[in-house]
Amino acid sequence: DAKVHTRGLYNVYLKFCKENCINGYNVNKFSEYIGSLDGIERDRFRLNGTNLRGVKGISIKNLDICGTEH
After folding, report:
1. pLDDT 10s digits, 44-66
2. What distance lies between CA 27 and its chain's CA centroid?
3. What distance in Å separates the CA atoms of residue 48 and residue 29, rounded to the nearest whole number?
4. CA 39 to CA 41: how far, in whole Å?
5. φ and ψ at 58, to 5 degrees?
6. What is the pTM of this model?
7. Which of 2, 7, 20, 25 makes an SS bond possible with 30, Cβ 3.0 to 4.6 Å?
8. Is residue 35 within 8 Å of residue 55, measured between CB atoms?
9. Percentage helix, strand, coil, to 5, in the chain?
10. 3-state DSSP call for residue 32?
11. For the chain, where are the E strands, in sequence order?
């Protein structure tokens, strides 16, 4: 099952916004928006030994500089 802590997802989002000259949402607005998407569930869970709030139903792809997934 795909899941990611909000902090990690938000950091990737901020990096994307900065690289694309976009004014992003603050963390509360971002979390609210992500949680409103179909198939996404906001919850608190343990991931890599850390128990934090996050979302289930989404994950972060590892992309290299060329944008290819690995």
Report:
1. 999 889 899 999 999 988 755 44
2. 10
3. 25
4. 7
5. -150, 150
6. 0.80
7. 25
8. yes
9. 35, 25, 40
10. helix
11. 3-5, 41-47, 50-56
